[in-house]
Amino acid sequence: MGDMNSLTRDDYSNDYYQINILELREKSEWAKPCFDLTNLVLDQWSYIDAFRQINPDLNDEKVATCQFTIRIDYIYVRPRVNDS
Q: Rounded to two decimals, what is the model's pTM?
C-alpha cells in the first residue's frame, strides 16, 4: 500500500500536531485530520509500518512526505503466517 492521504497520530509531537496540523487546517478551512484508515491498517489488519520499523524515533517534519510537512505516504507489510 502506498499513498494513503491519511495521517498517523504517533508521527507528531503534541505541539507540532496542534500548530502545524490542527491550526493550519482550521485556518485554511480544510477537513479535520482523521486517523481511521491508518488505525484500521495497523491495529485491525495487523500490518506493520515499514518506515516506523526503520525510523522509530523520527517525528514531525522529519517524517513529512508532502509539501504540507505531514506524512501521507506509507509502505505497509504483513509477514506471512508461515514466515519465520
A: 0.83
